[in-house]
């Protein structure tokens, strides 16, 4: 079969089509299922049984007191949740809320049917082809923010590389400051104890210029709550639930259930544990403040049975996504899922794994797909090149959210009439009218033929990705208002830093 | 968050779990849509209008005569299909048939709801890390067959690298012989004119030991029919339709509609053209022999608007898959789709592109997903390493076809009771009972931690893939019966070769 490669040079002069805007996405597909409705009900009931009979270990006395006051049976550090408490929590938990950003164009309604992507979160290390692999630092943390701000398909900030060069009691200042200095998307703050959380909230209020009332009645920043599976919520996480809920800031509940390790080896068993922990955390949030914005969620995958290493983007990962979606719909809440990869490098393995989690998130109706780009080594490292190669997949999947018209003009009977058998459609009016809007425009994919590609150095996608992120960072200009936002928090940071900052909770 | 990497060495001694069997797959998900039912009807009606008013150019007089006899208006080389003819063809075209292989375990029922994968098809070149990129030869053709036979997730043979070292008039003997000598999956033959087709059929009859009746009443081999878009069926393809249909052998109709080049720039327009060409070819097949097994199909993607190069695994590729699935369901026929990549190497780009087409095929309910593994450079090259890195994705997606149980035993309340908060499930009875069957076992993915991976040479997936295909080929043993099948065709091949073979049709 004859195929055209590298032809039509005349078109190249017209330049690439404008980048598409992926900032507002709705799921285009019907969510899929792995369980029958009866099985979903059975898993939900089993999770309620876990909460009532086996209980959760909650390491924060204040959280145990809130739950005891709401009717839970508390014995030592164990909390046993009655079904009525959980049901009450699910009645008050909102189905939809606004995730606010400094730039209203980046504010979003978080609800079932909406689709958000965020970059890698929680990586201690960073890696790129220029500086190599190293502990995360403020430079790599900031670089990742620039990349997150640059791509419209990334809908909120996430902490892609931990700035380990900033002392721990001061790190939260640097992280919030960098987010405000770099961009205007929705903010992320870690839950590492009340002192840091209060500082974070104060910086958000000051930086955004919000009154207490404006702050408390809307979500302006979010945090991720990882339970310590199985059946434990540690003190910083419990504190985060209580404090974020009371302040009306968004909680993203995320049991990290690896089937065969910290969770049962079966998908149904691991999801029962995830569901119990998620429901327990949601209940704590709602008892702390009814109506607090709290996202259901989970990050489930399996361990490799040969090595015991966590695996990502596996069939089990996708099955847990699909089952999580069913459980989220069962309780009616929006929910977070995750992609990500175990690969050590931005190669075919890493792409295959991430694409599995991205498609799994799409097909399970996830509201938010975390770790969509840049997550190497099961999250131990943020990869600059990986961020670029992953975002190609994220953008292409996001492109499917745009409606496709089958209307008469799109069918284009005139164009079909215009072209003789064996001819081509390059010059038809139908083509010329649509040329500059048609088709996804590649981010890092190289579509040149083998000869041209080899002559140009035979670079693989990861190698080309270096130039892509370098170009974005070199040309990066913060959006309007960043300097002003930072100016509003500088004095607070200086004062607090002079006082020694805020140590994290043990 | 603490994560376990590289732990649990005791488990490694138990060896990998047994490879899963993916030889019988049914679609686990509901097919998705991009068009409304009205739009699907409009595209179908537009395609009928194309066939009736614009017509197809059919370059084979015999085919034009068949269509004229069935009531088509024929003018010079143009054939205008009445709607009644197309409707009659859709009445006689079977919805379900058996694709037979020498080994009944590899015979399959081809029908909506079934899911088949095949490897790369139609690549003139081959490439691997040892021999480099070169014109396809009989060795690479045979190597590809061995890989196809090895993996249970590949359900039929496809011609992955053209054996260009075999003279054209003898090539079809070498190709059928190599398939019979290598494995026992369903056979593929090219449609390159009546002389070669008759030889192919004779080899199939002899090799399988079939009576004429057994051969003619069941499908024992298949071919792919590419129309010359737009609106043309060349002589070899038309001959293939007529001859395969009359012999009751499976036709896989595949217009290759690149939106913006040989097809309209819109998804709806390109699909209208694809649908018209596919319906025209199906009609010719049914007029040649009512009830002949013919698969609807298409291979649609777009050209890159910068270079004019074909792009694969793009959003438009997936949208055309989804629309094709809707059109196939509209006419009630099983259908073929395709994955594939434009990348020049088995890198993140190649994996991302192929995963798009694999998931697109899954979500559009394709009966057969062609080019699932090894298709580099938009099909110009079969890549050995690419075959391995792609098949990881194919196997993981195929794994989703297995039902997931949410029954009581799987929920495992006992296991949940067994493990204290913060503990682990490694040693629970629930885990031990399921350990050797649990989880997908990686083909080429490396799940070791960064340190171990770096120490072992920091190899990416493509590099590791070399050892994987080398290992498979080194240990390859043909299944029982191959020698006998070949013995039954040797004399025929010798006689025909001595007579000069059969030249392909011009």
UniProtKB/TrEMBL annotation, chains A, B:
Stored Pfam families: MTTB
One example of a Gene Ontology biological process annotation: methanogenesis
The UniProt record lists the keyword Methyltransferase: yes
Keywords: Methyltransferase, Transferase
EC main group: transferase
Top-rank taxon, per record: Bacteria
Stored Gene3D superfamilies: Trimethylamine methyltransferase-like
Region (Disordered): 1-24
EC number annotated for this UniProt entry: 2.1.1.-
MF GO annotations: methyltransferase activity
Keyword Methyltransferase on entry: yes
Family: Belongs to the trimethylamine methyltransferase family.
Protein name (record): Methyltransferase
Organism: Roseovarius faecimaris
């Amino acid at each position: 079969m004859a195929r055209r490669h590298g032809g039509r040079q005349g078109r190249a002069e017209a330049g690439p089509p404008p980048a598409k805007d992926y900032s507002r996405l709705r799921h285009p597909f019907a969510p899929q299922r792995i369980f029958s409705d009866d099985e979903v009900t059975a898993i939900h009931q089993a999770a309620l049984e876990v909460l009532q009979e086996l209980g959760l270990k909650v390491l924060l006395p204040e959280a145990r007191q809130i739950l005891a006051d709401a009717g839970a049976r508390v014995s030592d550090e164990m909390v046993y949740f009655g079904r009525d408490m959980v049901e009450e929590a699910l009645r008050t938990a909102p189905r939809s809320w606004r995730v606010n950003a400094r730039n209203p164009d980046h504010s979003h309604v978080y609800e079932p049917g909406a689709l958000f992507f965020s970059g890698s979160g929680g990586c201690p290390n960073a890696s790129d082809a220029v500086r190599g692999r190293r502990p995360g630092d403020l430079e790599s943390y900031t670089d990742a923010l620039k990349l997150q701000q640059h791509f419209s398909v990334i809908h909120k900030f996430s902490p892609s590389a931990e700035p380990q060069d900033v002392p721990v009691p001061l790190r939260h200042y640097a992280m919030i400051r960098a987010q405000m200095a770099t961009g205007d998307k929705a903010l992320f703050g870690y839950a590492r104890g009340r002192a840091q959380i209060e500082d974070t909230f104060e910086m958000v209020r000051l930086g955004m210029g919000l009154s207490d009332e404006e702050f408390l009645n809307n979500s302006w920043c979010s945090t991720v709550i990882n339970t310590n599976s199985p059946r434990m919520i540690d003190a910083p996480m419990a504190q985060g639930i209580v404090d974020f809920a009371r302040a009306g800031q968004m909680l993203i509940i995320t049991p990290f259930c690896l089937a065969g390790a910290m969770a049962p080896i079966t998908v149904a068993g691991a999801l029962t544990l995830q569901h119990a922990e998620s429901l327990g955390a949601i209940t704590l949030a709602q008892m702390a403040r009814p109506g607090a914005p709290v996202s259901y969620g989970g990050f489930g995958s399996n361990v490799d049975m040969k090595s015991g290493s966590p695996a990502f983007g596996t069939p089990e990962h996708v099955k847990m996504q699909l089952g999580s979606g069913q459980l989220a719909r069962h309780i009616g809440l929006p929910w977070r899922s995750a992609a990500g990869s175990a690969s050590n490098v931005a190669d075919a393995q890493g792409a295959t794994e991430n694409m599995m989690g991205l498609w799994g998130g799409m097909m399970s109706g996830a509201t938010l797909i975390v770790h969509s780009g840049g997550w190497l080594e099961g999250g131990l490292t943020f990869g600059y090149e990986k961020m670029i190669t992953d975002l190609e997949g994220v953008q292409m999947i996001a492109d499917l959210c745009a409606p496709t018209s089958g209307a008469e003009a799109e069918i284009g009977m005139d164009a079909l009439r215009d072209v003789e058998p064996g001819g081509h459609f390059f010059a038809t009016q139908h083509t010329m009218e649509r040329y500059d809007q048609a088709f996804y425009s590649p981010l890092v994919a190289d579509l040149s033929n083998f000869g041209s590609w080899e002559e140009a150095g035979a670079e693989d996608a990861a190698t080309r990705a270096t130039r892509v992120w370098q170009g974005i960072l070199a040309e990066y200009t913060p959006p309007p208002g960043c300097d002003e936002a930072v100016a509003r928090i500088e004095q607070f940071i200086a004062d607090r830093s002079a006082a020694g900052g805020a140590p994290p909770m043990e």
